[in-house]
Amino acid sequence: MEPRGLGFQVLSGFEIDDRAIGPTPARWNDVDPHRTAEWDVLMLLLAHVVGAPFGWSGQQEGRLVNNIVPSPGHETEQTGASSTVLLEPHTEDAFHPGRCHFLLLGGMRNHDRIGTTISSVREVELEPAEFVELASATVPILPDASYETNPAAGVPTAVPGANALALPTLWVGEDGLCLRYDPAYTPLGTAPERYRRAYARLSDELARHARTISLDAGEVLMIDNDVIVHGRVPFTPRYDGTDRWLKRINVRVPGRHRPPAEDFEDGYGEDVVDPSGVHPIYSVRSASR
Ligand SMILES: [Fe+2]
């Protein structure tokens, strides 16, 4: 079931009873878990087919199945709780070496057919010199505002801290070009002009090849997080129980290759919650406790 080629796949045909799941909550922690337990289990089963689902201790209380809903007060953030701004294309949890290999987004409700945008790095066209620039470890990526540990929560143009480690945007993985990209949390102002030009070219190319998928209730979008960047178009939230509602699961594939230098990153202290015990960062940390 692993997505191949461009790095994404939409599974459809699951049925969701719009009334039974209850109104879209105003915040992720207002979800009544009993109403959506069936769907959570289905998403976890799908995740286990691909790899090992995991959560983050600092995000949605470490839950394996996250709820993505527009939330009052978060409208303009660069997080899943936003609404009125474009959620810029990004690699999920790009700041962390333990970020997922696959991201599963499950549609619970989307009456307004609000679009999720995806772009594949496998479609971009760059000059060799631009590739060389973007493959160099030049700028860090900082934690996003959905994490409690973010030193500048809510401020997308955060300044790098002392432990910020520069990392490559592009690398060649086992079966082709891969990326690690989150412009909203990348302090590009510290980079040389030639790097910024190459980064802008990559952004333009990703925009040029963007697809929009309006994830309907009962559809699951599987994204290869090393190949695809994802975002969301702006929309006006209603906050009346009918807003767009997604489920999200992070999945790791044990043994999958990433640049060896990532082993030296500390992930800004953000811990993984991994009930399967296969996550290397979890294993290291639990062994040292
Ligand atoms: Fe995301």
TrEMBL record:
Domain TauD/TfdA-like: 173-249
Binding site for Fe cation: 90, 92, 230
InterPro entries on file: Clavaminate_syn-like, TauD-like_sf, TauD/TfdA-like
Record's keyword annotation contains Metal-binding: yes
GO molecular function: iron ion binding; oxidoreductase activity
Keywords noted in UniProt: Iron, Metal-binding, Oxidoreductase
Listed Gene3D superfamilies: Clavaminate synthase-like
Pfam families according to UniProt: TauD
Family according to the record: Belongs to the clavaminate synthase family.
Annotated protein name in UniProt: TauD/TfdA-like domain-containing protein
Species annotation: Rhodococcus oxybenzonivorans
